[in-house]
Write a structure and sequence with these properties.
mainly alpha; MetI-like fold; 73% helix; flat
């Protein structure tokens, strides 16, 4: 076999991912960039007349604030899922096999729920009339029931609840392969279990934690229904405004310009997170 034929054979496994990436990201993203440069036409969505007006409109304090809020909310959801998920999955992998299966089935059952069901369930749970505050009043922890939705806390709670199973799916395989002798060696040198987890386990899982952060961040960035069901207009993400412009305002060029900004900003944050997750050499 010649060297050229061997090189083609070695690169063959990359052909399918490359085709999928081109078909489902490069081409749609290129079309979105093209539409963002067109001129709006209320009678036909847009005219192929090049303009930068859509980007100039987006470069305002209002849309900049919405973009930063969307990125910050997604980063906060990712940070909570990783911070809570890492010790939870670590303890879960040390539990008996039957306990692990029960917890995984319960967590993965959340994935069968639609975003609408999750939103209305949390809206009811955090309401004044039928919410959890009535239980706190009965226990004497509160003087009267209160409404905790709509609020930023309700949006954050709903999004963390929805994203946490995905974090568990990414963390579980890596944590289940950790050699228990690492922690035992740290304990023999005087470290308590908590210190051994912080100084031995977490540094070894740095790449996995960064990958989990990226997966949850990208998932949370596309949140559309939960911010509307559980939050006020100031808690709406850029995805909500993009949908409003594309469907209800029939302004496809401006919606495409906002989507381009959102994709570019998220790619930059993903690259920064991936760089942080690299093992130092």
């Amino acid at each position: 076999m010649t060297g050229a034929a061997s090189g083609v054979k070695d690169q063959a496994p990359l052909a399918f991912p490359a085709v999928m990436l081109t078909a489902f990201f490069v081409v749609p993203f290129g079309l979105m960039i093209a539409v963002s440069l067109f001129t709006r036409d209320q009678a036909a969505f847009y005219q192929p007349i090049l303009t930068l007006a859509n980007y100039e409109r987006f470069l305002s304090a209002f849309f900049g604030k919405v973009l930063l809020f969307s990125l910050g909310l997604s980063a906060l959801v990712s940070a909570i899922c990783v911070t809570v998920g890492a010790p939870f999955v670590y303890l879960l992998t040390r539990a008996p096999r039957r306990t692990q299966v029960m917890w995984l089935v319960a967590l993965l059952a959340v994935l069968s729920l639609s975003e609408v069901i999750i939103g209305f369930a949390w809206s009811t749970l955090l309401s004044r009339t039928a919410g959890i505050t009535n239980l706190f009043v009965a226990l004497g922890l509160m003087s009267e029931p209160d409404a905790w939705s709509p609020s930023f806390g309700a949006v954050l709670t709903g999004m963390v609840y929805q994203a946490f199973p995905y974090a568990t799916l990414v963390l579980y395989p890596a944590f289940s392969r950790i050699d228990p002798s690492w922690s035992e060696a740290a304990r023999t040198m005087g470290a308590n279990p908590f210190r051994a987890f912080l100084t031995v386990t977490l540094p070894a899982m740095r790449g996995t934690l960064a990958a989990t952060f990226i997966v949850v961040f990208v998932f949370a960035l596309g949140a559309y229904l939960l911010p509307q069901l559980l939050g006020r207009p100031q808690h709406w993400t850029l995805s909500v405004l993009i949908t409003d412009q594309a469907i209800y305002q029939s302004n496809m060029p401006f919606a495409a310009a906002m989507a381009v900004f959102l994709v570019v900003a998220s790619l930059l944050l993903v690259m920064l997170t991936a760089m942080f997750g690299r093992n130092p050499t």
